[in-house]
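Morning!

This is the sequence you dropped in the shared folder:
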Amino acid sequence: MKKIEAIIRKTKFDEVKEALLAADIEWFSYTDVRGVGKSRKERIYRGVIYNTDIIERIMLTIVVRSQNADRTVDAILKSAQTGEVGDGRIFVSEVTESYRIRTGERGDISLYLPDEDKLK
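The structure's back. Tokens below.
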């Protein structure tokens, strides 16, 4: 199993969400995050000076079976990329175990619902 954490632009969230759903990734969590980037410029927009030291982004956390990791990363890369500085980062790490609290299932099966569960 793999844990994929992606930090993306807020403006790309809907595109990334749709790309993940199209790649059959049906569950993920996300949070608003802030970070400090390498670029430290002031930008002026409509006469107001904005400091870009602190960057607001969204962090997605997705745990998938290992066989779905590349498909998940590709969906994020293609949908989140603008080609500009600040597009974000993706981190992939190993997950040694997973449990579904409701049923006590563990391992890969705890990450998705078998077809009969989807019908209930």
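Headline: The two ends are 26 Å apart (CA to CA).

More detail when I'm at my desk.
O.
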